[in-house]
Amino acid sequence: MASNLKFTKELITFLGKAVIALLETLVFTFIPRPRKNVAGEIVLITGAGRGLGRLLALRFAHLGSVLVLWDVNKEGNEETCRMAREAGATRVYAYTCDCSQKEEIYRVAEQVKKEVGDVSILINNAGVVTGGDFLNCPDDLIEKSLDVNFKAHLWTYKCFLPAMIANDHGHLVCISSSAGLIGVNKLADYCASKFAAYGFAESVFIETIVQKLKGVKTTIVCPFFINTGMFEGCSTVRPFLLPILEPEYVVEKIVDAILKEKVYLYVPRFLYFAMVLKSVLPVKIALLLSDFMGVFNIMDGFVCKKKKH
Ligand SMILES: NC(=O)c1ccc[n+]([C@@H]2O[C@H](COP(=O)([O-])OP(=O)(O)OC[C@H]3O[C@@H](n4cnc5c(N)ncnc54)[C@H](O)[C@@H]3O)[C@@H](O)[C@H]2O)c1
């Protein structure tokens, strides 16, 4: 009897809170969510030497943030640093850091804490891709994919999350991928690393919820293919549903999601629908649909650069 009463009470509480959350979501569908102010926030971007990382740095420069730029490519990173200053950033710090090396991450992170301060927005963006049939992928490149695209996220969280918790203030941003939602032909190790990054970021997000760390936010980003050069040669056969995205557009969406403290961002929107289809369709139909969408052959034109940073 007592347990029935407890169950009923918990059910009513849950339903009440769910209705309030639903109403809140509905309201924010029509009224844009307020954007937070990131002026003065210390924003660390890994892989800032080109592509999305560089564009993110320029956007945060415009927003008045203090920039900490990491990349294994010293020249590219210093060029981003120079461009960020031109874009109005007054405090920009470039560090050469190979994110595939745990000890190097720990060493450079200590330097950042001493020279700049506590990072309050951490954007794990650095990434590499092998590309090709799994059995033809060299072991060292598979390990590199996992080290840069996933394990670096573990080590950077260890370095910077404690201060965010202590200050009850911070934002963890995981740049995963649509390849972190759906397996892709010829991207097995990349997908594994992106699924892992997603799962890790989502699990720590749940930890922050359970521990009532209201000031520590998470944003997980899953874009489809982007025209940055990383996936040079890849093309889509259904551009109206799954276009190859322009980097400026993706960065605009990412920054908007961070400022609105959105937890999940999939670009383009069709990916939200694709995830529902993946969960509900019989496998044979899902495979037929993937084939129709050209997803099986998306890597066919890939220009393999065998990046070995
Ligand atoms: N380009 C796409 O189609 C696409 C799609 C979805 C997700 N993503 C993800 O977005 C992120 C950015 O991709 P991008 O298209 O800008 O790629 P990019 O190749 O243009 O830039 C990646 C950056 O990461 C740096 N980097 C590589 N290895 C590193 C290491 N060991 N340590 C430090 N820095 C390192 C590179 O030097 C480079 O500056 C990646 O995580 C990528 O997986 C890209």
TrEMBL record:
One of its GO terms (biological process) is retinal metabolic process. One of its GO terms (cellular component) is lipid droplet. Keywords: NAD, Oxidoreductase. This is Epidermal retinol dehydrogenase 2. Transmembrane segments: none annotated. One of its GO terms (molecular function) is all-trans-retinol dehydrogenase (NAD+) activity. The gene is SDR16C5. PANTHER family: EPIDERMAL RETINOL DEHYDROGENASE 2, PKSB. The keyword Heme does not apply. Belongs to the short-chain dehydrogenases/reductases (SDR) family. InterPro entries: NAD(P)-bd_dom_sf (IPR036291), SDR_fam (IPR002347). It holds the Pfam family adh_short. Gene3D superfamilies: NAD(P)-binding Rossmann-like Domain. The keyword Coiled coil does not apply. It comes from the Eukaryota. It comes from Panthera pardus.
